[in-house]
């Protein structure tokens, strides 16, 4: 047998960055079909608006909750076709990660992990309302995060006008 041993002891890995998903779950789900059954006779194509938010909060030492909040509204000339609200959460344990890397993880990687589940739940909910499944396009969470941080940097660098 070869003398190479690839088994790392706990002492060797205790200082390495570790991230794990402790749980993921629907925190809130609402599907409204206020104009059924008349809506199924409407001929106009609905306009669909999607709003997306990410929220985070610490739950315990090294444990964070990440919430993906999605609000989908479909409207036609005749009225509201359907409305879906979903809050899907993940509980993440983050250990030995540098402090400056925690926020990017919570706003980029954690949502990227949760998004496929959000997409499926929304598609199933809309389909179960007797509409074609709503298939959300993939979201570039890294680009969104960079855009948000740039906007925050610009706002913090803008000095208020003083009085003369």
Explain briefly what this protein structure is.
Homotetramer, a dimer of dimers. One homotetramer interacts with 1 SecA dimer. The protein is built from three helices and four strands.
Overall outline: elongated
By secondary-structure content and strand pairing, the structural class works out as alpha+beta
Which topology of one domain does CATH recognise? Bacterial Protein-export protein SecB
Determine the fraction of residues in helical runs and give it as a percent range.
25-40%
Question: How does the SSE layout of this entry go?
Answer:
Layout: H1 10-13, E1 18-32, E2 47-60, E3 63-76, E4 79-95, H2 99-128, H3 141-157
Antiparallel strand pairs: 1-4, 2-3, 3-4
Helix pairs in contact: 2-3
Protein name: Protein-export protein SecB
Keywords: Chaperone, Cytoplasm, Protein transport, Translocation, Transport
Main location: cytoplasm
Walk me through the structure.
By secondary structure, the protein is of the alpha+beta class. 31% of the residues lie in helices and 37% in strands. It contains 3 helices and 4 strands. The protein has a 4-stranded antiparallel sheet. The mean pLDDT is 90.
